[in-house]
Amino acid sequence: MFRRLFLLTALPALFPLMACAQPPAPAALADLPSPAQSEPSSVSNYVDDRFWIVSSRRVPQSDGQIGCGPLDVWSVDCPQCLGPCPPANVKPQINRCPNRESILSQSLTPGVPVCIVVHGSYVKWQTAIEYSWKTFRWLRRGRPGQPLHVIFYSWPSDAMTLLPHVDFNVLGPRAARNGFYLSRLLQQVPAESPVSLIGHSQGTRSITSLLHLMSGGSVQGYRLPTGVERGHQIRVVFTAAAIDHDWLNPGQRYGGALCRTEALLNLVNQRDWALGFYHLRTLNSKQATGRAGFTKRDYQSMGPLAHRIHQMDVTREMGKNHNWEDYISRPSLAAAISPYIYFAARAPAVPERVLSPPNDTQQSRYR
């Protein structure tokens, strides 16, 4: 039986520098009140077996054109996804939305939690479609019967060469630029709805970029225009996170990201074969967050904001696996992350396998 999550205790702040001005007092997830927004007064337009696919594959991805062009939107009806014994070959009904983003905005029920999932690199369009309904089924089984809007976000992450390190150094910055398009998507979500963000591999970079931008930071020399922030309540889940473990520290690349989320759950697989090569991509690269976790030095640098981070070791469940399909084939993981997705009043109180900040000997491996 999959054990319960255990919330890490924040380390005392050792540095006065904070990533955001006057952050709210940090709270452990178990102490977070159930948001009033997660209890909708009316769900008249809520459809339980429907989710959405939003794509940035046809909008500009290069510098100077970021944020141009509308995102493509599809509504997907998948009643087979929620059945007790779904068939092996599910055939969801995919409908392209002619008015794109406006249709999505009108379809979301205010107050119902919204989960946005961002895939990683090397995902073709047809694979993204398959991942979308499998992800929807996986998330809905984590807490059956509870309302949830699911949006599967797809970005142009196809392989371009036969050299993985070349592709990675192109797709990494592209994933970061998609933080701007994610901000566009987030503007379509009702302000009353709490939002969870799930990132896999380089999809975590898109999410981290989004959070950093929302806190007033810049990404690749660009910032969000003023007035786009809607004040959503946000929780985050990282899976196989392909970002440097220190990028969320104050003063680092995405040092403002923690200011814009109340809780971040990092699933750590210390045997992830793909992330084992992550630190070799450039001369000064650090170990990946999804393999090393946030280190003791990271916790010290984050100060009180470290109290918002929780880590869980999934090495036993995942083994050497890295792919998204390996995660969504495990119902126990859907149940474990469900408090972050459905905005439960309280997180489970029974201890889980905790990935504690490493001691000084272990930390030297991850610098």
Helix vs. strand class = alpha/beta
Quote the beta fraction. Answer: 5-15%
Question: How many beta-strand segments?
Answer: 9
Element-level helix/strand string: EEEHEHEHEHEEHHEHHHH
Which spans have pLDDT < 50 for at least 5 consecutive residues?
1-19, 21-44, 347-352, 356-367
The neighbouring-strand order within the major sheet is 3-2-1-5-4-6-7-8-9
Q: Radius of gyration, rounded? A: 19 Å
Q: Could you estimate the helical fraction of the residues in percent?
A: 25-40%
- Termini separation comes to 34 Å
As an assembly, this protein is single chain
**Quick check: average pLDDT?**
82
What does this structure look like?
The structure is a single chain. This protein has ten helices and nine strands. It has a single domain, classed as Rossmann fold, CATH 3.40.50. The protein starts with 49 loop residues before the first strand and ends with a helix. The protein is α/β, with parallel strands linked by helices and 367 residues long. Helix 2 crosses helix 9 and helix 3 packs across helix 4. The N terminus and C terminus are likely disordered. Strands 3-2-1-5-4-6-7-8-9 form a nine-stranded mixed β-sheet, with helices on both faces. Helix 2 links the parallel strand 4 and strand 5.
Present the secondary structure layout:
Elements lengths: L49 E6 L16 E6 L15 E4 L4 H7 L6 E5 L6 H18 L6 E6 L9 H23 L8 E6 L2 H12 L19 E6 L23 E6 L20 H4 L3 H7 L6 E5 L1 H4 L5 H4 L3 H12 L17 H4 L4
Parallel strand pairs: 1-5, 4-5, 4-6, 6-7, 7-8, 8-9
Antiparallel strand pairs: 1-2, 2-3
